[in-house]
Amino acid sequence: MAERQRKRPKRTPPDAPAAPVFRVGEDRYKALVEQLPVGVYRTTLDGMIIEANAVLARMLGHKRPQALFNCNVKDFYVRGEDRSRLLEKLSSKPTSFQEFELRRVDGRRFWVRNYCRGVKGPDGSIHHLDGILVDITDRKTADRKLELARRKLQMTNEKLENLSLTDHLTGLHNRRGFFTFGLQQMKFAKRLKEDNYLVFLDIDYLKEVNDLHGHAVGDQLLQGVATILKSTLRESDVIGRIGGDEFAVLAMRSKGLGERALLARIEEGVQAFRMKKFKNLRLSVSMGLVRVDPQKYQQLDDFLAHADFLMYQQKRSKERQGNLT
Predict the structure, then answer these.
(1) What secondary structure does DSSP assign to 104-172, as a single string?
(2) Are 91 and 214 within one domain?
């Protein structure tokens, strides 16, 4: 049997080139970074950009990533405190998520969401920052438009609510507004254990004024009485025009002003207004006043009906005395 020949390993000639070494992992990472639809960056702690992808370059207004390597991220922040806040968060947490505005090289602003990670060195301190930026300008614009629309709707609703509670001629509460705020006043008085005065007021001769001088003059009288009530009473008192020539007042009881003094002040104000504006017109008011005890359960319109009855009695008394002929 012939002896089997042993296979000898092939020797590489000394002048043959060495086989190339491919860093497959690094190349795949760079390709992945370039294909991401977000901006990818690495910066030093003081803000110098040392790595960036093409998307980030375009976001910031440059054509190539290399153009960013001489830039500091601080130059792109609209508000410098956003950068300070980022570093403060990374001092206690490994990652930070923020939304803020950046400024392109051409001055245009855009919103981003920043996902950032602090990478520490051997000494345990942050060596550089890695992160990605997502452009959220469209979402922010939509949110801003939605917020503006919400505010506009709120303002419209408030205007409509005010219109529904306000008498357009006098600026006082209308009947609905008087009852709405009057009930709140009664609840407040109940907590304070204080009484209220409810005054029902009717303008005498208003029909005569409208017939002889026109409704424009009658409207001036209504506005004048409204002004008198607002200047005579406190801002916290509830005043309303609840009918054509009828007004109602719900006033918290004052230690320095009794019920007779309250009615007298209103009457004096009306006469002073007449002498100043309408000397040739007959103008007066009839009033009825009731004490409202908020501790007793009773509807506000019950008190109003009682005050209306007392006002009517005063008006009839004036007629019998010849003051309302």
Answers:
(1) -TTS-EEEEEEEEEEEE-TTSSEEEEEEEEEE-HHHHHHHHHHHHHHHHHHHHHHHHHHHHHB-TTTSS
(2) no
Q: Locate 264 and state its tokens.
A: 């007298």
Q: Could you tell me the pLDDT band of residue 233, with boundaries at 50, 70 and 90? A: confident
- Is the same domain home to 172 and 300? yes
Quick: pLDDT tens for 183-212.
888 888 888 888 888 999 999 888 888 888
Residues 187, 90 share a domain: no
Name which of 282, 246, 286 is nearest 266 in CA terms: 286
The pLDDT value given to residue 172:
94
- Letter for the amino acid at 114? N
What does the pLDDT read at residue 10? 54
User: Are 96 and 89 in contact, with CB atoms under 8 Å apart?
Assistant: yes
Range of the domain at 195: 166-320
Percentage of residues in the chain having pLDDT higher than 90: 48
Residue 8 within a domain: no
What's the pTM?
Answer: 0.52
Number of domains in the chain: 2
Q: Does the residue 209 lie in any domain? A: yes
Whether residue 222 is predicted with pLDDT greater than 60 in this model: the reply is yes
Residue 316 lies in a domain: yes
What is each CA distance from 10 to 7, 13, 21, 128, 253, in whole angstroms?
Answer: 9, 9, 21, 49, 116
CATH of the domain at 303: 3.30.70.270
Pair 177, 245 in one domain: yes
Q: CA gyration radius for the chain?
A: 41
Average pLDDT over all residues of the chain: 84
> Is 53 part of a structural domain of the chain?
yes
Distance of CA 325 to the CA centre of its chain: 55
Q: How far apart are CA 36 and CA 55, in angstroms?
A: 8
120 & 252 share domain:
no
Q: What is the pLDDT of residue 73?
A: 93
Which secondary-structure segment (H or E) carries 25?
helix 24-35
> Which CATH number do you get for residue 124?
3.30.450.20
